[in-house]
């Protein structure tokens, strides 16, 4: 090996430092945007800005301040629309030159997360059914795969009956309404499922925060500490995390899938549990298994009292005595 080549462990330390610095830069940039937006939208600043604009035209604003003011105003206006109209429609032209239906109807759905920020918008493009100008069907979408768009289409955007089913509708005219499309209910149900999914993810992150979370991409860590790191499927960058040492002895708390309906718990003494989160945020069912079989007393703690998922850690701290 070349004498000038740094050892492998030094390269790993440098890579770790670079990752940490980049993460810190991203955090500082987000903090700067938040503070800038808060300052520019404050009542005192807006009052001073109105007084200044009353005496001078808007074009005379300082070059360094004017872009920030315009960006803050546009950001505030966008957030106002997102809060008031969480689902909006817009016309969209299909860029494909071979499209049979170039004129599409776009649907945008916004969901606000627990930290007060809006998530990345979800889009659905609808096209007209050939021969049925008043009927729509899904053309493209950015909805997660675990939300069945096919079921939503069958329920709220059904296509006209053909063949034997059409003949049955003629004999039974009261069934005609079964094929009636309802775009409003389609949008309402789709947004409800997206919102409940984000609420489940927020609940899992809240439980982790109460127990303490260590993130591998931020701060110092050691590979020789004997702890197991696992990839966080709920984060956008899929960073590696693990729970900090806590009084409850819980070493892992993570959803079993991206849908975040089922959450898996693991204790230091080898006990493993799983509970289900309902669409209303309640713990519907829980199972805990240890060396001696099922721990029904602990299962009752997970589902007891108010049954809310947000208070799972509080109930465990109140009723659970960690085993030695």
Automatic annotation (TrEMBL):
Signal peptide: none annotated. It is found in: Chromosome, Centromere; Nucleus. GO terms for cellular component: Mis6-Sim4 complex; nucleus. Keywords: Centromere, Chromosome, Nucleus. It comes from Aspergillus leporis. It comes from the Eukaryota. Its main location: nucleus. InterPro entries: CENP-O. Pfam families: CENP-O (PF09496). This is Cenp-O kinetochore centromere component-domain-containing protein. Belongs to the CENP-O/MCM21 family.
């Amino acid at each position: 090996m070349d004498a000038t080549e740094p050892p492998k462990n030094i390269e790993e330390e440098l890579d770790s430092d670079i990752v940490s610095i980049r993460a810190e830069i991203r955090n500082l940039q987000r903090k700067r945007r938040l503070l800038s937006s808060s300052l520019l939208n404050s009542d005192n600043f807006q009052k001073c800005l109105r007084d200044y604009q009353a005496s001078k035209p808007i074009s005379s604003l300082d070059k360094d301040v004017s872009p920030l003011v315009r960006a803050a105003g546009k950001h505030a206006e966008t957030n106002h629309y997102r809060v008031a109209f969480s689902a909006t429609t817009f016309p969209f032209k299909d860029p494909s030159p071979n499209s049979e239906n170039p004129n599409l109807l776009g649907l945008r759905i916004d969901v606000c997360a627990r930290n007060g920020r809006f998530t990345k918008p979800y889009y659905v493009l609808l096209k007209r059914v050939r021969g049925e100008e008043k009927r729509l069907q899904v053309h493209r979408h950015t909805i997660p795969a675990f939300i069945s768009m096919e079921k939503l289409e069958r329920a709220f955007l059904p296509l006209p009956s053909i063949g034997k089913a059409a003949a049955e509708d003629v004999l039974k005219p009261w069934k005609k309404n079964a094929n009636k499309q309802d775009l409003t209910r389609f949008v309402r149900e789709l947004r409800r499922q997206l919102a409940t999914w984000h609420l489940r993810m927020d609940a899992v992150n809240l439980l982790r925060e109460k127990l303490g979370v260590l993130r591998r991409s931020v701060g110092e860590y050691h590979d020789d500490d004997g702890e197991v790191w696992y990839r966080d499927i709920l984060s956008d960058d899929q960073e590696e995390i693990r729970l900090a040492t806590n009084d409850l002895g819980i070493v892992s708390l993570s959803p079993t899938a991206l849908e975040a309906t089922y959450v898996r718990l693991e204790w230091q003494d080898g006990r493993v549990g799983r509970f289900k989160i309902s669409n209303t945020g309640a713990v519907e069912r829980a199972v805990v298994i240890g060396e001696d079989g099922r721990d029904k007393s602990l299962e009752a703690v997970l589902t007891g009292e108010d049954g809310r998922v947000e208070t799972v850690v509080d109930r465990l701290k109140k009723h659970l005595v960690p085993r030695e």
